[in-house]
Write a structure and sequence with these properties.
Layout: H1 2-18, E1 31-34, E2 37-39, E3 45-46, E4 49-54, E5 57-63, E6 73-76, E7 81-84, E8 86-91, H2 119-122, H3 128-131, E9 138-143, E10 150-158, H4 164-167, E11 168-178, E12 183-185, E13 196-198, H5 202-221, H6 229-233, H7 236-239, E14 243-248, H8 251-263, E15 269-273, H9 281-286, E16 291-293, H10 309-320, E17 324-326, H11 333-336, H12 340-349, H13 354-359, H14 363-369, E18 386-389, E19 401-406, E20 409-410, H15 416-429
Parallel strand pairs: 1-6, 2-7, 8-9, 11-14, 14-15, 15-16, 16-17
Antiparallel strand pairs: 1-4, 2-3, 4-5, 7-18, 9-10, 10-11, 12-13, 18-19, 19-20
Length: 432
């Protein structure tokens, strides 16, 4: 009997210790934020601003004025800064909880051509990794699958929800593809030269992609007596309801991917990664193709690249007129997503204007994901998805959030990390 009680108590402690916070309730009272410096996300800044939102929507974004605020909840934010919620694209947040535990990983499927695999079905709204995004202002994200040649279908979510249905902002927004690389690296563990070498199978791998798309178009033109899920899932690429997100880095690969999309009448395409996108910036502009850049804190992709190429790449593309967004691609991508604003800050340190860098994680990303009618900027009529920081949100030393709202709901800024910080801060500084 005593053993059973111990087991029950252990289960209760484990449950309480690892439970996600309860999602915030719907906004019921009009809220006004006064006195803050408002960074609108479109390059504009309003000093001493007045921001009012009701029923989850912004109603006023302007300079402070004599306005009757009676009956409203007023947040005095003098000396603080207000930003639209940051958006992380091309992410696997909510698809993997612990990399070392296979049972918690659901970011890829077996096989090469899986456009019908929907990442949103596997999204875990109660992930403890997701709750660690909010204290840095990352409030929305695009959840994308990985693996294979055609990985599957992505969706856009907000980061405070009961389940994936509640979290969804835009379902099935695009299809992710991994373009073949024209170069490969030798396998040093087999005694090969670890340097780059030409991929002898590149043309064959590209032909496989072309053949698959030819089959999807033939399927669409037929009677379709039996539904073929992979073929049916691609049809949105040709009518414009879905975007094709192509992971590709090298100059030749980007060029070939663009021609492939044009030849197959893909309406909207986005380059993901694009470490050599600056070499074909004119081609990107001619075809109105945006780029989601890889994690800024990365080594140069080639031995002869400038040492700071990863830091200044965004600036090179923005100066050319390319629409650019940032993500946290790379090792430990999910955990690094919380550092999204600081990647933008690094770009500022290497030449890009601060408000322009802010666009790379707000309005530009919203435009690329097709959610800019509601998110990405602080404008009347849009969603009240925003946060208040004590200082510059692109600086890790001063980005200290006091409030955050998603669709007008006041969301928790607590996480497992903040709880541990408070616990040991109290121990160290209490004198015990």
């Amino acid at each position: 009997m005593k053993k059973n009680i111990y087991i029950l108590l252990l289960a209760m402690c484990t449950s309480f210790g690892f439970a996600q916070q309860t999602p915030a309730s719907k906004q019921t009272k009009t809220i006004a934020i006064t006195g803050a410096t408002a960074h609108l996300g479109n390059g504009e800044v309003i000093e001493n601003s007045l921001i009012i939102f009701k029923d989850g929507k912004l109603t006023t974004v302007s300079k402070a004025s004599q306005t009757d605020l009676s009956g409203m909840e007023v947040i005095k934010a003098d000396g603080k800064h207000v930003y639209p919620g940051f958006i992380v694209p091309s992410s696997t947040l909510g698809l993997v909880e612990i990399d070392a535990v296979k049972a918690t990983s659901d970011n890829r499927e077996m096989g090469e051509m899986n456009p019908h695999i929907r990442s949103i079905i596997a999204y875990n709204a109660e992930s403890k990794v997701i709750e660690s995004m909010r204290p840095n202002g990352v409030l929305l994200g695009q959840i994308a699958p990985q693996g294979g040649r055609v990985s599957g279908t992505s969706s856009v979510v907000q980061f405070d929800a009961w389940n994936w249905e509640d979290a969804t902002v835009k379902v099935n927004d695009g299809i992710y593809m991994n373009w073949p690389s024209s170069f490969t690296r030798g396998r040093w563990w087999l005694g090969e030269d670890p340097g780059l070498k030409i991929n002898d199978k590149y043309a064959e791998q590209v032909d496989q992609v072309v053949s698959f798309f030819n089959e999807t178009k033939a399927y669409a033109a037929g009677n379709q007596p039996v539904i073929n899920l992979p073929y049916a899932a691609t049809q949105g690429l040709f009518d414009g309801s879905k975007k094709l997100y192509i992971h590709v880095d090298d100059e030749k690969g980007i060029t070939d991917a663009i021609h492939f999309a044009k030849n197959n009448n893909v309406k909207h395409m986005v380059i993901v990664g694009g470490s050599e996108a600056y070499k074909v910036a004119d081609l990107l502009i001619q075809n109105d193709i945006p780029v989601i850049l890889q994690r800024v804190h990365s080594l140069p992709s080639r031995d002869d690249d400038d040492y700071d190429m990863s830091y200044k790449l965004a600036n090179l593309l923005v100066e050319k007129g390319v629409l650019v967004a940032l993500n946290a691609n790379g090792q430990m991508e999910r955990m690094n997503s919380r550092n999204l604003p600081f990647y933008a800050g690094t770009i500022v340190a290497h030449g890009l204007d601060k408000e322009e860098a802010l666009k790379l994680i707000t309005s530009n990303t919203a435009k690329i994901l097709g959610i800019d009618s509601d998110y990405g900027t602080l404008q009347a009529g849009k969603s009240a998805t925003l946060f208040i920081s004590e200082g510059d949100a692109l600086d890790m030393r001063t980005n200290i959030l006091t409030h955050a709202f998603i669709d007008g709901r006041s969301v928790s800024l607590e996480s497992h990390q903040t709880e541990l910080y408070k616990r040991y801060d109290e121990k160290i500084n209490s004198g015990k």
